[in-house]
Amino acid sequence: MSWEFLLLGLFGALGWYWYAGMQARELAVAAGRRACADAGVQFLDESVALQRLRFARNDNGQLQFQRDFRFEFSDTGDNRRPGVVHMFGARVVWVNLDGEWRPQAVASVTRLHD
C-alpha cells in the first residue's frame, strides 16, 4: 500500500470525525434549547462547548463516542448557570440543568426521548 492511500484514508477519517462532531453539536444545541424552554429559563449564547469526549459502550455493548457538551442558561437574565447535555453517539441521553437555580426542584435531570 502506498503512502498516498494511507494519507487519503487519514483525511477521510478526519473528515468523518469532524462531520459527526458537528452533527452531535447541533443536536446538543437543540436539546439544550428545548430543555431550557421546558424549564422556563433562557438558553444563553445559543451555543454549547464540548466538555468531554471518550469511547464508551452503549446498551448493546458497541463502542461509541460519549460526548458531554456544556452550556449556560439564566433564570433572571443577569446570572449564568451551567448545564450539560450528555450524548451517546448521535443520541441525547439526558440534559442536566444546575439544581441550585430552583431550590424547590427535586430533580435537575431531564430525560429526552428520541
From TrEMBL:
Q: Which domain of life is it from?
A: Bacteria
Xref: Pfam families: DUF3301
The name of this protein is DUF3301 domain-containing protein
Q: Which organism is it from?
A: Thiobacillus denitrificans (strain ATCC 25259 / T1)
